[in-house]
Structures are given as structure tokens and as C-alpha cells.
Design a protein that fits this description.
The complex is a heterodimer of chains A (234) and B (299).
Chain A lengths: L3 H8 L4 E6 L2 E8 L2 E8 L3 E3 L1 H17 L5 E5 L1 E4 L3 H5 L2 H17 L4 E5 L2 E3 H4 L8 E4 L4 E3 L3 H8 L3 H10 L7 H6 L5 E2 L4 H11 L6 H7 L6 H10 L2
Parallel strand pairs in A: 3-5, 4-6, 5-7, 7-9, 8-10, 9-11
Antiparallel strand pairs in A: 1-2, 2-3
Chain B lengths: L9 H8 L6 E3 L9 H5 L10 E8 L2 E8 L10 H17 L3 E6 L9 H20 L4 E5 L5 E2 L1 H6 L4 E5 L4 E2 L3 H8 L9 H8 L1 H7 L4 E3 L3 H14 L5 H18 L5 H7 L13 H8 L12
Parallel strand pairs in B: 3-4, 4-5, 5-7, 6-8, 7-9
Antiparallel strand pairs in B: 1-2, 2-3
The chains are: A alpha/beta (234), B alpha/beta (299).
Amino acid sequence: MRSWRSVADALFPEGHRIEEKGDLLCGDGRAGGKVFAVIGTTNHAEVGVELALAMAAGVLDTVRTHPGRPLLFLIDTKGQRLRHRDELLGINSFMAHLGKCVEIARQRGHRILGLIYDQALSGGFIPNAMMADLCAALPEAEIRVMGLPAMARIMRIPEERLRALSETSPVFAPGASNYLRMGAIDALWSDDLAARLLESLDRADTTDRRSASGFDRGGRMLAQQVANRVTVDE
Amino acid sequence: MKHSYYEASARERVDALLDPLSFREILPPTARVVSPHLTALDLPTAFDDGVVIGSGALEGRAVLIAAQEGGFMGGAVGEVHGAKIVGLLERASREHPVAVLLLLESGGVRLHEANAGLIAVSEVMRAILRARAAGVPVLAAIGGQYGCFGGMAIAARCSNAIVMSEEGRMGLSGPEVIETANGVEEFDSRDRALVWRTVGGKHRYLIGDCDRLVDDEIAQFRAAFIALMREAEAFTLEALEREHAMLTRRIELFGGHADALDIWRALGWEEPGEVSVLDTREFALRAMGRRAARAGMAG
């Protein structure tokens, strides 16, 4: 798996100033004559209340200080922190707060991109990369809700059965390519990251097209159709 | 007569909460919109995929409503289930009802269709915030057996305000999940008192994550919704900055406390043990001045 530095170097040929503070990445980078605000996580971060709040602070600061500047989430997370203290403090509120900050940035004209460059698990990327206008992943990125063994245990379905099903259905199986088929990942970026970044920025807008992409790519056939039926039902 | 919210099914909640006979269901069970992913696993499906949605009236004014059914897979979110809620919220952005009411009861993402469920949850979050940006208040209720966990607890806090009962629970990772990951010393999921004071309605009310605490009666949830519809705040940068300050302060004030009892003491409850004993009315009175700044409306 690539380090965030090597990914940032490839994304921003005109240079970047990204600070690593614990598991938080924060700074900016330049590509194609444009400046991007960069907020992210590293070291397979466990996202607890402090890290969620720090990412939200980064978003709010960008909105206040650099109106309109595009924002890139660089994500590597093993999920939400699984601790009693985080629950006691209401970690879901911190996650929601981050998601709302991303939404307000979008509504105020910031284009929001996400790049999963290593791991992404459930609560760790829902309020950031999954709130982006467009989210991409490196082909080797590992994206999942939880591993098949844990899933098999909780669902009381034999692991071999789940493994067999995951061969044919993208709805269970971990992996960036499944999220691509289901529309949540816009594209896999395997080369020339700077060009992919700029091309995505050009296409990004405020419409959530993930269910449409999921249908077009054959990975999620019902989401768009059901939502549309509800919206227009007489 | 008392009509328990906790005991009621999703349909019973909707019928009793809205004006009598005003509910009109969208994609009712007769439409047979079921999860194809459960069928693939030879598991039972539900003709509404565990969520009831539709339109109705609250004091004569048009609302849209969704109610998750805990009795079907713990209210967990799959592709169809999530899409029904997303569609309802998109409809709200178009039709401008006076509010969207979300009666949440969910363990989070439905693992049997994990990836689809996770994506659906994030689509619900975005749809809630779009409805709010379109000027439609989104109000949530939590008071069912399964509580509100996982991604749906994040979605809940994307709404304008949350009404809970003492019996309601809200959290991101359930106690069992935390115990499995980090041991019984981290979180003993069988210690009911510990679970209750960590994720229960009273604690959520005291730290400012829920806006109204009501008795376990559908009529009280209804009354709280009617009051909240009138005071819903717009979704703005300024409101989010206030929420940011509130959450920053929460970590400063309470981040060093190991137990809810310590937090309640810090909030001014000299005898924090009484929190669990007081009935809702008495508790709400005593909580004035002993509760963190109200948060739900500020985001």
C-alpha cells in the first residue's frame, strides 16, 4: 500500500504542504494551477470524537478562510473508534457534525472530492469521503463494512457460503471494485493521479448520482428505481 | 389510554402519531418491493423491507413520515429500505411538507447486504441535509426496542431535532460490538444499568444530543413533534459553528470522565443516582440548569 506522502506527491506535482498530526492530515496541495484544501487520516486511523472534530474544524476553517476552494479527503481508516468513552460522549453526534460541515461546504460552492488510498471501514469514511461530490479509490484500497469472518459470525451464515456469494454479488464482498460497481466509488485511480484529480474536479457537482451509477454499472439495481417511485408516487 | 411507543409496531406508531385516518402509505406491502439480496440468501423478506413510508397530517398540516420496523431484522438498512427513505426525503425537497418525521429504530447497516446498506445510509444522510437546505424541517423520534445505532444514529443527528423516551437508546457502535472488539472490561454489554446510562434517553438529553425527552407514549411523541415543527432552525454555517463550539466544550468538560454518573455530577446533579429514578416530568424539571447547552437545534 502507498504512503500518504507518495500519494500526495503524485496528486500535487506543483507541491503540497500537508501536516501529519497524529492520525490527522491537514494542509493544502497544488495541481493544474489550482489549490486544494486537504484533510485526511493516516495510520489506519480509528476515528474517535477528537479526530472527527478535528476534520470538521478543517472543513469549517476552509469554508471561512478560503471560500470556494476545492477540498480533498485523503482517507485511510479502520473505522470508528470502538470505545465506551466515545459512546459516552456521543460519537454519532461528532460524525454527524463532520458530515454536516461537508454538506455546508458543498452548498457554499466548494467542490468536495474523496480518495481512499489505503483502508476504509464503515463509520470511518461515512462522514467524510462518502459525503464527497465524487469519491475515488486506489485500485488496491480495501473498502468494507467488516470482514467476512466477523460477518459470518454475526449473521450465523457459514463463511464458505458468504465467500461463495461474494464471488457473484458485490453487496457483501470487501473491495474497492465492488463499491465501484455499486456507484459509491466514482473511479479507481491507477495512474497519473494529478490528471485524475483535475478531471474529477471538472465533473464534480452537488447532485448525488451514486444510485444512478450503481444502476448503470449493474451493481445496485434497485436503489434508484425505488427512490424514484417514492418521489413521483401519486 | 396509554399507548406505548416502545411496544408498538411501526404501523401502529404512524397511525397513532398522525391525525386519525390521515396516513397514506407509499409503496405499501401490496407493492411487494422486497430485498433481492435476502432472497439470494434464502432468508425471509418483508413486503415493506422493514420500513413504512407515506404522507399524512399533523394538526391538519401535511407531513411525510417514515417508520422503521424493529421487528424485521432489527430495522437494519438494506438497499430497498434505504432507497425508500431517500425517495421520501427527495419528495420532501420537492413538495415542501411542513416537516418530515423519521421514526427511527435500527441496528444500522443490514450485514446481509452490507455494502448496499452502508451506501444507502450515506445517501439518507445527504437526502436529510438536502431536505433541510430546501427549508423542510426533519424531526426524528427514538423510543423503540432496538434503539438507533450504527449509521442511522449518524443520520439521526443530521436531523433538526430528536425526541427520545427514557427507554430509547442511541449510539454508534452497540455495546456488544465494543465488547467483542475490546473486551468486557471496556464495555460490559450485559450490565444493563451501564448500557442504559451510556446510550439511554436521559443521558442523551443531559449532554445535549436529544431535544425533548418524553414518556413512552405515542401521544407525547406527537406533542413534541408539533412543538418542534414551530422552532426548527435553518441549516447554516453559523449554526454549525455553534455546534462545533458545543462539541469542543463537551470534550473539554466531560472527556476525562469514565462514567455517565461523573458527567451528571459535573452538570450539577449532586446525587447523580437520582437521574435513573425520577419520572420524566420531574426529571425534565430538575434538568433545567443541569444539562449541557441544547444542541440539536444548532445544526
